[in-house]
Amino acid sequence: MSVERSPLHNPNDDLPQARLGWIMAAIQTLIYAAFVGTFIASPATMTTPIAPGMAVTVATVFGLLCILSTMVLTGTYVLLANRMTAR
Amino acid sequence: MNRSLLPVLVLAGAATPALAAESGGGMNPVAVTMFVAIVLVTLGITYWAARRANSADQFYAAGGQISGFQNGIALAGDMISAGALLGLAGLICASGFDGLIFAVGYATGLPFVVFLVAERLRKLGRYTVADVLATRLSETPIRIFTAVATLVIVMFYLIAQMVGAGQLIRLLFGLDYLYAQVLVGALMIVYVMFGGMVATTWVQIVKAVLLLGAGLAISLLVLARFGFDYNALVARAIAVHPKHEGMMMPQAYAGSIWQSVSLGMTLMLGTAGLPHVLMRFFTVPDARAARVSVFWAVMCQSGFFALIFVLGFGALAIVAGDPAYLDAKGAIRGGGNMATIHLSHALGGHTLMGLVSAVAFATILAVVAGLTLTGASAVSHDLYARILGRNSATERSEIRVSRLATVGLGLLSVLLGIAFQSQNVAYMISLAYAVSCSSTLPLLILALYWRGLTTRGAIAGGVTGLVGAVLLTVLGPPVWVKVLGNPAPLFPLDPPTLVTMPLAFLTAIAVSVMDRRRAPSAAMAPALSA
């Protein structure tokens, strides 16, 4: 494709962290899809207490971990991307 | 009933003005003092900003001088509306875990913005999303389309916020709905018109700090009441809720699979297409600062949504279990949106309740100001400066138009806020998110990552997504059933994202491919001129 060779086209495509961004987005989607998907596929799993006699359910912990994952993934991405672009 | 949970964040419950004096109303001196203090501080910020907001760069993007950290806090402020502070706790009181579904869904949206959009946006754009798309595509049609999509999203979002604000202020301060509309409208016009992005950003920062502080304080007090035993808190919440253990299963995911997937998708992806969120990335100096700002925004936003796991169950355990906060029918007095306010009263008396009420008010002001600025920019920068007045517009006239547009949008939203006072506006946020997922987001992702996108493809895909999202929302449960009162929806999903987003992507790709096959050079020309 001749278009793709155009050097003027879009300099942003060369950002080194572009691939990293997609990988992180995929991981985030997987984590969230697992949260939503488990509710759809097996609601009983999600509403089970984390230990016998406890009130806190699997979904409560899963949900909090899901939120925590947004912080961890974003932090990792920013650290790596800053390092990549600091050349 | 369980279909339209997204809109709960609107705050537009069936609020009753009759709130007993001992736990709310306009007589709370702390609330009134804080309320006045917030108005004075924000007007002070505007006065300070007004001396700087005289160039287009300052007006739209604060001169690119906001630091990554500051912008991150402001961005978190944009994301956490009063609906998140008040609506989610109310939703947890009413239907349990559903409120947490929204907390988790919204939290996962912002990381996407940093992974895929923020840096490229900052590199390519100046003031608006259309600037970015216009670097790749033919300018006039893409600006017209993006401006229309922006205005659709902003207006629906704004009306929902205004109606919610009117009802909330009436409850919190005993102010008449009409006065509340005029007050909020006037303040937001002043912030945006005189202070532009500088004032809007700082108002948002003040609000975000207050909001995070209030959320943290309430959560700690809730945990303290249960001896810092989270399990005891949840156990009490389960005991109080009429469905007991059943409330740990969200109704949002108890229906059809497609419904659950469509809602899940919308919550996660909607954020990345909201124009008032995207516009924030033009206020920082460079792409690196854009990246850093989303990092801080994610920390604040996710931290806040994690607090909802304490605050929401706390409202259920403490407020919904205390007859003092319930009406004769056992529902929360003043409606679900009052749950957090009652909770602060239960934990810290009139002082804390006054503080939290004032924080809710600041939150409303900051969110509507951000929305108005975004809408005004679409009118003055995209439609006026770049299209209608392309040959005659100067920076001065552009700023004049943006101020006029601010007044116009402000007046319009006050009028619509009054017109929709007693209407069910819950669908409007749902609609804004669906339109965002189905029009601005697909165009942005394709423009940033796919070289094959042509102008014709972008417009075809964007229009299909926009029209599809509006049409299917009207034919779906939120309007067809809940507003028009029909027994069954013609289209089952609410929001319709699962259908309309792929449709927008496919249309844009198919039309682009056909376009390029017909005229191979068409795709290159705009890129070369950019």
Report what the structure shows:
The complex is a heterodimer of chains A (87) and B (530). With 87 residues, chain A is an all-alpha fold. Chain A has helices at residues 2-5, 18-41, 43-47, 58-85. In chain A, α2 runs antiparallel to α4. Chain A is elongated and about 50 Å long. Chain A starts with a helix and ends with a helix. Chain B has one domain: Sodium/glucose cotransporter. The longest helix of chain B is centred in the last third of the chain and has 50 residues, at 339-388. Chain B is globular, with a radius of gyration of 22 Å. Chain B starts with 28 loop residues before the first helix and ends with a helix. At the A-B interface, α1, α2, α3 and α4 of A face α5, α6, α10, α11 and α13 of B. Chain B: Keywords: Cell membrane, Membrane, Signal, Symport, Transmembrane, Transmembrane helix, Transport.
| Unreliable residue runs of chain B | 1-26, 522-530
**What is the averaged pLDDT score of chain B?**
87
Number of helices, counting only DSSP H or I runs of 4 residues or more of chain B = 20
Shape of chain A: elongated
* Unreliable residue runs of chain A: 1-13
Which structural class best describes the helix and strand composition of chain A? mainly alpha
Main pleated sheet of chain A: none
Write down the overall mean pLDDT of chain A: 84
Overall shape of chain B:
globular
Fraction of residues in β-strands of chain B: under 5%
Instruction: State the total count of DSSP E strands of chain A.
Output: 0
Largest interface: A-B, 48 and 59 residues
Element-by-element helix/strand order of chain B: HHHHHHHHHHHHHHHHHHHH
CATH level-1 class of chain B: Mainly Alpha
Structural class of chain B: mainly alpha
Radius of gyration of chain A: 20 Å
Cα(first) to Cα(last) distance of chain A is 31 Å
Helix percentage of chain B: over 70%
Predict the CATH topology of chain B: Sodium/glucose cotransporter
The CATH superfamily of chain B appears as Sodium/glucose cotransporter
Organism (chain A): Methylobacterium terricola
Protein name (chain A): DUF485 domain-containing protein
InterPro entries (chain A): DUF485
Keywords (chain A): Membrane, Transmembrane, Transmembrane helix
